[in-house]
Design goal:
Beta-Lactamase, five-stranded antiparallel beta sheet, alpha+beta, about 35% helix
Amino acid sequence: MKSLRNELKERIRSNEISFDQIEELCSDGFWYLDLDQSNSKVWFGEKLCEKLGYNTSEILSVVASMMKEFDVDEIHKFIEMVKLQPANSKDQVSHVFKFKHKDGSSVWIRCKGFVVKNKNGKPDRILIAQTDVTNEREAQSELDFASKKYRELLFGLGDLVFVVDRSFVIKEYHENRNNEFLFTAPTLFLNKHLGDIGLSDNDLRQFITAISDSKIEPQSANLEFSLTVNGKKGFYLASVSAINNQDGQLLESIIIANNITEKRVAEVRLQELALVGSKTTDLTVVTDSSAHITWVNKAFEDHTGYKLEEIMGKNPSSFLHGPQSDPAVVERVNRAVLDRVPMQDTMINYTKSGKEYWVDFRIDPVFDEVGMCSHFISVERDVTLRKKAEEELAATRALLLETNRVGKVGGWSYNVATNTVYWTDVTREIHEVPTDYEPSVEKVIEFYKDGESREKYFEAGMNAIQHGIPYELELQIVTAKGKELWIKAIGKVEFQDGVCKRLFGTFQDIDSFKQVEKELKDACLLLENLTTHIPGCLYQYNLFNDGSFSLPYITEGIFSLTGYKPEQVTKNPALIFEVIHPDDVKRVQDAIEQSFMTLEKWECDYKIVAKNGIEKRLKGISRPEKIENGVTWYGFLQEINL
């Protein structure tokens, strides 16, 4: 090989191989720089000139503008590094510079240089070879942009996003500010180990296992965890994904977590609702997002004759509706379910035996933490007697029902310049005035009920005219016939050149909706009274496999029995055993243990010593259910005579 190298040198000296041939073989040309500060010269090869859009005769005159985007310090630093390079070094000093093409575009060129010394061994020239890396730079720029967008997309997928290195240290952190539970600034987690951010030991082990598994399996690992910071606790559902290099080695892990705290709270509330719902006389139906039954209360089973096990998974419409069920109401129900919106109405349903009954019902969708409808809850009340009474009075109430039609909407407008008011016929009908009635500003205001309604309407009108603020109000009016009605008044504003020209909007009779709203409030109050005033108290008691226990739910009646408030007992469930008379403690515990083992009904009479020292005898009955880590009982306690 050494002989070939020497041969090549000799052929270059003897001109067998020309300089032009060597230059042509070079990647993208080269240039030759004189280091003499008093007589600085530079020669650019033809290939470099062509690369920059110039010919050799004109490039020297434009070299200053062509290189104006250079950092002068970087140029000097590059030259000094080349000068310091050992003469026989095989690794040339390299740097990428941006040149300006003749057409104004940018050309990125990697420069590799080595120094040429004179006879005295002093560096006096630098030979620099060129490689056009414009395509590489543009590709890298696109890759960097795509990477940035990819990270922005990832950061938008979760309420909390962590980028964790191989040592489980958080290197990047993002939080979604729309998440109400978020409680800190990003810097609180940066450069911290996962074990130092408020995770429990079990959750930390989950993450370490999930990250380890994700290095092997391409799919993301999913897990639930809780995070406690500054005394606040939130629950999250997370996915863990590994980012590996081409050799399969882990570079970093991405943890994308969504807040499910509200879902957890909703689940607890739903359990309480199920407990209370099982005691109420209203018919309660719970379905999944496709309107298929997942649960009904006992009142529903007793009233309709259908047991949960025979209707589980069915659509209520498939067996409750019959010949007299109003198709329009059925269609509204179907539409509300499809649109995931609440609705309420009245219709005829049928029992298992075919008996008709009228129900007032309300259907409400329930949404999960990501805004998806998870299920529907329908509460129904048998109003058959009320409907029969209404039918008997239908003839005498025809005019009243006509003037209070649900959904009646009228229009109105007010011309500020002419001070004139316009009403549609329906608006006149709601106010119970003749069809030729001509309203005025003063007369309109007088229809609003004196007091809060009139004051709110006046204030909203002035704000609309003076400041352009639209309004939507629920107010009371007194019609021309003296009838008080709830109405919804919507007003919009039309401005021209900064001056209010016109107010306009709609006027709707919502009195029937308000009545239904009151009935619902009354129903809620009735449910509260049923649980509050029932003799004794209702409760839920949990006994776990490790021997621990809890009382997650107990009604107000516990206070009259023991002298302790519900919140005291749920916080310290041991109180419920401390009041048991010493003679009966073992018998009560044995009965609980027996029920725990056999899952048979717990029923026990025993004495207690209340907080005030008075002895009482209680009777307790409850039914056990197996849970994942123990047994739970739903039951009641009641005082009996000693």
